[in-house]
Amino acid sequence: MNSLPPAHHGAHLLLVDDDRLVLSTLSAGLEQAGYHLSVAESAEEAEAQLAGGLRPDLAIIDVRMPGRGGLHLAQRLRELDHIPFMMFSAYGDPKIVAQATHYGALGYAVKPLDTAQLLPAIEAALARANELHELRQTREQLQQALEGDRGINIATGIVMVEFKLGRTEAFKLLRDKARAQRRKLADLARDTIAARESLNLIKLPHDPGP
């Protein structure tokens, strides 16, 4: 009886290990399971691929490799590329596991590995990565909304001063103008603030005279 295909069928994985046999065996098994694979034999090779535009859905990294090593690559993925990752090693050292978790690893597996053993961990990591991505998007949307509200408040204040209106009347004027131009109120508010700042920049200092 065939097992069900992974829920994240077609996801792009980056597999990083200095052991060519591991790379060959796991990449073949994962491709057969329905994933798209990129491979690298070192952290440096993985970094070169990332610098060239590679953006996998999940990186799977060996901890111990010659050169910069897996933990260095993990830190790069977290801080610069924001690519989710999980780690594996021939050693289950609690300190290494704790360090990998500190860097943001979404899973940790111990060698020897086979595809059947790795699939559940990959699926769990991809699911968690999707959750984190959605949370990040929600946070960014909330931040944009807060910034938009702040801009609208500032623009309303500018209109109040310029036209000697109360807050309600000034807000209504901005809103009606945005509707007439078929624009978002936040965009009109941003332009209003920018226009005021431009005027402030070109104002000449008062000449007190001789």
User: CATH superfamily name of the largest domain?
Assistant: Response regulator
Q: Could you say which overall geometry the principal axes of the C-alpha atoms support?
A: elongated
Give, in spatial order, the strands making up the sheet with the most strands. Answer: 2-1-3-4-5
Q: Uncertain segments of ≥5 residues (pLDDT<50)? A: none
For the report, how would you describe the main beta sheet? 5 strands, parallel
CATH architecture of the largest domain: 3-Layer(aba) Sandwich
- Under CATH, the topology of the largest domain can be stated as Rossmann fold
Number of domain modules? 2
Indicate the radius of gyration in whole angstroms: 27 Å
Number of strands: 5
Order of helices and strands: EHEHEHEHEHHH
The average pLDDT is 82
Kindly estimate the percentage of residues that lie in beta strands according to DSSP. 5-15%
**What level of helicity do the residues show?**
55-70%
CATH class of the largest domain: Alpha Beta
Q: Ends: how far apart? A: 99 Å
Classification by helices and strands: alpha/beta
Number of helices: 7
